[in-house]
Amino acid sequence: MDIFIQQLINGLVLGSMYALVALGYTMVYGIINLINFAHGEVLMVGALVSWTVVTLLADSGLPGWVLLSISLVAAMLVCMGLNFAIEKLAYRPLRNAPRLAPLITAMGMSLLLQTLAMILWKPDYKPFPILLPDEPYEFMGATINLVQILILVVTALTLAGLMALIHGTQLGRAMRATAENPRVAQLMGVRPDRVISATFIIGAALAALAGVMWAANYGSVQHTMGFLPGLKAFTAAVFGGIGNLGGAMVGGILLGVIEAMGAGYIGDLTGGVLGSHYQDIFAFTVLILVLTLRPQGLLGERVADRA
User: Fold this and answer.
1) The 3-state secondary structure of 119-159, one letter per residue
2) pLDDT digits (tens, 9 = 90+) for 174-185
3) In contact, 127 and 58? CB cutoff 8 Å
4) Which residues, 6+ apart, have CB-to-CB distance to 144 below 8 Å?
């Protein structure tokens, strides 16, 4: 039972980070029907920027939580500017092009960001400093630390804030109108270009938050660190129902729990043939099953068909 509770906690923490990135995927897809495969690299840039700021301020004498907060703000600002530039320079000129063109562009942008990060920060793994107390807390026979608690709390608050933004503000109404029909929304006074840019900026902030969380939880950063989390977050978005914010959140949490449970029990289930390092197979098994049995995802897709 202790192993089950521990893996459940690990899965909720992992799934929370997947969910934050999946929200960015699903928001962009909901507005312009684009899968931004460079989104995982935005997470990576956020983590590396955070590491850079923490390293530069390491001798400042500031408390760890202040360093983490400053680095998080810096990471968000850089990622928001980066995603704004990506949308304006790479995706906007292809908005009316065949769907294959922006998809290939997104893949190319992913490789470009990885290469630029490798040049700027070098390819070696960098240890992320421990900024918060790491004493474990006991919970029903399992352990959880302060960073993991913060990840769970911040993710819940972020989702609540995002839902309030989408359903209770003028920007949120403009986003929903643009998602339904951008031409009609424009006739009603909405500026689709601004709405789309705002969507990319919000998605980048979520990815930067996930990147800093990832670095603080796992303790290292590197230029390829965003590829697998980005791919799994896309799987989570498809799992929950891409285009649906609640679906992205549910998909991320469930995928994290499935992956953690699989990593904890795969050795017993296979008689020791497979170990916990085979945990990645669960995410892609889920993707195959969802695409085969329920392509619209668990909660379906709320995006209306374009006129």
Assistant:
1) HHHCCCCEECCCCCCCCCEEECCEEECHHHHHHHHHHHHHH
2) 988 888 888 888
3) no
4) 9, 136, 137
pTM to 2 decimal places = 0.89
CB 143 within 8 A of CB 136: yes
pLDDT tens string 72-82: 999 999 999 99
Give the chain's domains with CATH numbers.
2-121+141-293 (1.10.3470)
Given a contact cutoff of 8 angstroms between Cβ atoms, the answer to whether 159 and 210 are in contact is no
Listed in sequence order, the residues at least 6 apart from 116 whose beta carbon sits closer than 8 Å to its beta carbon are: none
Phi-psi region of 122 (alpha: psi -120 to 50; beta: other; left: phi over 0): left
